[in-house]
User: What shape does this take?
Amino acid sequence: MRILHHLPLSPFSRKVRLVLSEKRLPFELRTEKLSERRPEYLALNPANTVPMLVEESGLAIPDSGVICEYLEEAYPDTPLLGRTLGERVEIRRLVAWFDGKFNLEVTRNLVGEKITKRMVGRGNPDAGALRAGYANVSGHLDYIGWLAENRKWLAGANLSLADFAAAAHLSSLDYIGDIDWSLSPPTRDWYARMKSRPSFRSILNDRITGIVPPPHYADLDF
Amino acid sequence: MRILHHLPLSPFSRKVRLVLSEKRLPFELRTEKLSERRPEYLALNPANTVPMLVEESGLAIPDSGVICEYLEEAYPDTPLLGRTLGERVEIRRLVAWFDGKFNLEVTRNLVGEKITKRMVGRGNPDAGALRAGYANVSGHLDYIGWLAENRKWLAGANLSLADFAAAAHLSSLDYIGDIDWSLSPPTRDWYARMKSRPSFRSILNDRITGIVPPPHYADLDF
Assistant: This one.
């Protein structure tokens, strides 16, 4: 069986879970405690990161960007990276935006400080980082809302990896109650469409010990 | 004419310059002062980052990862991402390693603190970051040396984007004198092979006002 080593609130892991489900590729989830630095895990992925996908053949694929490019090449049905060169540039640009800029400015400052830091035993959240994270959220919600209002999906006419990258980050932040959906109705409407997809179910059903998500988290009509 | 907006010491810009040259695609370099936040630049690349490639058709492609995937698809001659799925995973894994982990642990702490920070007017280098950068270099040189000793090129039998990603980071660090080549003879031998490629010439000829590289920087027999 295909195995995805992950952490439940890692947006990068969530993006890969969504892509695997959209492509109808069955997989088993394994939570990887990175702080244990397991030798067997490091042998496959010396960077000691999640997600890492291990195919039934034994092929180990670390890094969510590498995994998504691999899945698109190995399983081209349900294409998520676009067809023309221009579409592919726009989709990858937005994936880089969410996994790079959005992650740095928002997710890392909030999910990273509140959750990841505690899990790896690196102390309390940094107040400056939290402030920066909260200050940056609304501009990003506006940008997503602008894309959602001007296009059918975030990168254009078709649902793509850009939507899943964005939704993965927002879902992690939403779990810890850090998204105020009233700030951007178009973003909320787009996210409601994402949430109602079957691929989203397992993510909405995830519960992390000791952290209770807000009531609207798994609600499709929030 | 194809235009690459860049910064001379950005390893991400250097990687794209190397790839364009290897693929024999002519281009013009434009230094982009990101701190000016030019509206015309932001319109094409709201993330306000270098590199950004603008094709003659007007297609604007930001982010070095997006650019390299685009170039491979648009100009498949001189392939740099491998042929089999396994080769492509290994090449992209190493590119993610150098542009992610290596950049975070080494380049950002040294080139970022000493050069980029000054250029964008964000003050003096942070002593802790410099210490971390210096502490992390030697382990990374060992890893590159291990790859170079066990494989013909870093990702396997063929020269690939992994070699250019690694060489781009090392060349930026070498310009500011922060690589002690005696630490890893196999890394030095591999880098000597990279340096002697015609695609490397323009990078070795770059000079940044006010920063003189060490004498060995452009020397092919260093």
